[in-house]
Design brief:
homodimer, about 575 residues, mainly alpha, Transcription Regulator spoIIAA, 2 domains, 6-stranded mixed β-sheet, two-stranded antiparallel sheet, about 65% helix, about 5% strand, elongated, STAS_dom_sf (chains A, B), transmembrane helix (chains A, B)
Chain lengths: ~575, ~575
């Protein structure tokens, strides 16, 4: 019973070893992360189309639940940019932003996503996430970053604009451009400029002044707090809210409320696909951060338990006024760099944010939305990385196609269509590649027992013996290709008496391929040609023995290609 | 220019060599096939829900066009059972059977299918058909056979019944069972019994009487003609049509008419998916017959040119009052066995059928529909073969799952849903299998240079060196699995200093897997562990050289696993 409990409750493992050193490290990390998270949480709530306090709430219960169930020691869970964008995209199709129904639908989306993650974790279905290939993720993140940045321009300019893909957003922005509030635009552009300078200019400056890399990074991450304080003060002192600068306004002073998502079947039906995509993408983002940080301390991450941890966190978000959450890259890195030793650091962060929600919300009454938009823009533009296009072009045209399609379709059609198309395309390209495997005709390298491609090497061959090496597992998608290849090779060449299939690279033969081999065997028999196999792997041979094929095979199965060729050359029929 | 012409017009090749011997062989074959095709064509038109003459028309122009464009010397093109059933299923959802619109929609379906085949042929997309795995096809054909047989019971009993899956058909049959016309039922049951006897009883009898196998087969195939003649005569002489026996009735005495399919976008939109499925399934059936027959004479089949030939045949069907056609199994085998030497036999068959359409149609006025239904039932029940379930169960549970799902879904939901689900499922199962590849930790077989699984063999290992052999190409679906495996193996074992990946079974590394290898390399470096590769294949190495990975690799790339282990044991760091 006990090992099972620690599997599902990792807190039992690290909680038992908790000590004063870990406590002090965790408290320092929590303080730094809390300061960083306040503006970030507010901003991502804005991005998701929700009131700012939802961002704080979404960071409190989820982070605590993850501390109980998660396996990463440093992962910080809460709202992240891409998931917030996907939340806004999913909900805007269903309910109008700003209505009560919108906030309730956000709870339902988090609940649904939590249940999906939990079920995947309990049934160990984490492998589903593997179908999101790296190029698709890279393309998707880049395109999402562009859409998110574009979607925040309306706040920077103080205008209204709608849209969930680049085209509709751009058109809407251009349409409303004349309504720009110039004071808002000034704040927005200054804030954006300042934040970029903090990243690009301040960091090298501090490094040159002799500060350590870790401390510099932490200071740079608190840049948003400085601009929040500065712009809030400016709006308050100069009374800019009366001049049309949109501000955050009244935010309830409260701990996260207990909330109940709607479980109306119609709503859940509309949310199920977005919830699934949000779950998978959130999981992929989270697990890769967790793995990277765990490796630095030689710790283990259990992907299936991570699903359970993220599932619990999302259900927590649904019950406490939040929206879908996952493990975030930047917050987790800050947490790790600031010295977090255990998930307790997360719990302390949650306490810090709860205090902020209770006590500090009056202070952000005059916080301009343009400032929050600026923090979002600067954060997401660091995600935009077109180098994946160049890298994939150099490495593989199939991967390049998948990246390009994902980027273009995400920009053109929005996040859901983009990522779905990317996954579908990468699966199709993979199947296409393996449907036309490399089949080399091989011959003996003189004086050795090695056999190599006759087109690339100077090798010995015999007109009566054709040796073919298939560089791919045989399965339904390439079985008939092999039939065609062999038929074409042998049909016109009357000298051929033996065909040897060198099976050293064949890891599997499925039933379709087995039936193709039977057909090849039958057809070669009709032509008076024998079929032989060489170098069949153990597991493949085990399986072939369960079928009739070996008893019907006109030729033999040889341990090595050399042995096969020797035997057939000795006794030509 | 010339070789291109013979590629697209195979008739130029065989036509040039045509001689008196081929002519007489082809004429004999054509006579036999014509006699066999008359009842079969009428029956399949009935199955497709069309007037009987459509079956004759669908065998005339298509067979001639295939003779010009097709590469098989013996393939006989025309209506076949499964495609006729799919035609009925596709059209019944859109227009009412028996109306003019139904016949026009059948033309559109044939035209659409022809265009799809032609485009696939011209762009060499024949590999798409490979995604229909053998188990899925076997399951689909079996389930279709059952549905077809069930759909003909209404003609046997002389009642009305509707439905395109087993459940709805059965319910409808039971509902109308009390309306059974007993004279029709008598004719239907006698005809069915006679045809079964011809197959099971007459054939052994003739063989025992000393007739050759080929001649026996031909005689057996003409059984349907005998029962057509007998029952038509009975109905005519005894005046059974007046007693409620449904007969074929008046069939126009005419050559195939020139017809124009409807190109209404709404109709084409509804037909595009069925047309695609019909094209693919028809192509798969046709190509496997063609390959089997070609092998017997050591001839070549060009799959892409076959697509063009079948495409032309279907367009021909659309323009001459037919419906979708393909190369049929039984008619092609009869053609081959009867001695057809070239596609000219097909052209002569077309002439024979044209004469039948012109002159013989008054003779089938009194032909009972029950007789045609009986010929269909006996033909399709020979397609029903549940042994695929047993075979796939023994060989591979994944293949078994795909077969079972295809059979059950086809029976439950109909042909389109069944085959689509089967294809989807077999792709998913394939991806699932390759997403969890076999990864063996290997050690040295004492006294040799061979490395084998440490779990299966008594081998030498070193605590500082972990050697892993991955038995699968690395791509996005299994890249993260490898990351997890390596992290789990190394994270808890502080003694490990080197990880060697033996790449002998890796035929491809895609960009996702490359980035996973980079992540593995980075994480191992954090743990103070070096990553090495051994036995990387040429094409994989070529590609790796285009990326940065090799320069970042903490360890080396070795030609053999033995060399790698020797080197690392000599100089431990």
């Amino acid at each position: 019973m006990k090992p099972d409990m620690t599997r599902y409750f990792p807190i039992l493992t690290w909680g038992r070893e908790y000590n004063r050193f870990a406590l002090s490290s965790d408290l320092v990390a929590a303080l730094i992360v809390t300061i960083m998270l306040i503006p970030q949480s507010l901003a991502y709530a804005l991005l998701a189309g929700l009131p700012p306090e939802a961002g704080l709430y979404a960071s409190i219960a989820p982070i605590m639940l993850y501390a109980v169930f998660g396996t990463s020691r440093a992962l910080a869970v809460g709202p992240v940019a891409v998931v917030s964008l996907m939340t806004a995209a999913a909900l805007s199709n269903i309910v109008e932003q700003g209505t009560m129904g919108y906030a309730v639908a956000a709870l339902s989306l988090a609940a649904l996503s939590g249940v999906i993650l939990l079920v995947m974790g309990l049934f160990r279905l984490g492998f589903v996430a593997n179908f999101l290939s790296h190029p698709v993720i890279a393309g998707f993140i880049t395109a999402s970053g562009i859409i998110i940045a574009a979607s925040q321009l309306k706040h920077i300019l103080g205008i209204n604009a709608e849209g969930h893909n680049l085209l509709s957003l751009t058109l809407s922005l251009v349409e409303h451009l004349s309504e720009t509030n110039w004071i808002t635009a000034l704040i927005g552009i200054l804030a954006t400029g300042f934040l970029f300078w903090v990243r690009k200019g301040l960091k090298p400056l501090l490094m040159r002044l002799g500060l350590g890399g870790g401390l510099t990074d932490v200071l740079v991450k608190t840049g948003p707090v400085a601009i929040v304080v500065a712009t809030t003060a400016a709006v308050w002192v100069l009374g800019l809210a009366d001049k049309g600068v949109k501000i955050v306004g009244e935010v309830p002073q409260s701990l996260p409320p207990l909330t109940l998502p709607s479980f109306s079947p119609a709503l859940l039906g509309q949310l199920i696909v977005p919830a699934f995509l949000i779950s998978i993408i959130g999981f992929v983002e989270s697990i890769s951060v967790a793995q990277t940080l765990a490796a630095k301390k030689r710790q283990r991450i259990d992907p299936d338990q991570e699903l359970i941890g993220l599932g619990a966190a999302n259900i927590g978000a649904a019950l406490t006024g939040g929206f879908p959450v996952t493990g975030g890259f930047s917050r987790s890195v800050v947490n790790f760099d600031a010295g977090a030793e255990t998930p307790a650091a997360g719990a302390f962060t949650a306490v810090g944010l709860a205090i902020a929600a209770l006590a500090l919300t009056p202070l952000i009454f005059f916080l301009p939305k343009a400032t929050l938009a600026a923090t979002i823009i600067v954060a997401v533009l660091s995600l935009v990385d077109f180098s994946i296009l160049r890298r994939s072009w150099t490495y593989s045209k199939a991967d390049f196609t998948a990246v390009l399609a994902t980027i273009l379709l995400t920009l053109a059609l929005g996040v859901e269509a983009g990522v779905s198309a990317g996954v579908g395309l990468s699966v199709l390209l993979h199947l296409y590649k393996s449907s036309k495997p490399h089949i080399a005709e091989v011959g003996q390298v003189p004086g050795t027992e090695h056999y190599r491609n006759i087109l690339r090497h100077d090798v010995i061959t015999d007109p009566a013996v054709v040796s073919l090496r298939v560089d791919e597992s045989l399965y339904f998608a390439n079985a008939r290709y092999l039939e065609d290849k062999i038929q074409n090779r042998v049909a016109g060449d009357k000298a051929v008496r033996h065909v040897i299939l060198q099976c050293s690279a064949i890891n599997e033969i499925d039933l379709s391929a087995l039936e193709s081999l039977e057909a090849i065997n039958d057809r070669l028999r009709e032509m008076g040609v024998q079929l032989h196999l060489s170098e069949v792997k153990g597991p493949v041979m085990d399986r072939l023995k369960r079928a009739h094929f070996l008893s019907e095979l006109t030729g033999k199965v040889y341990l090595s290609q050399f042995e096969a060729a020797q035997d057939l050359l000795k006794c030509p029929n």
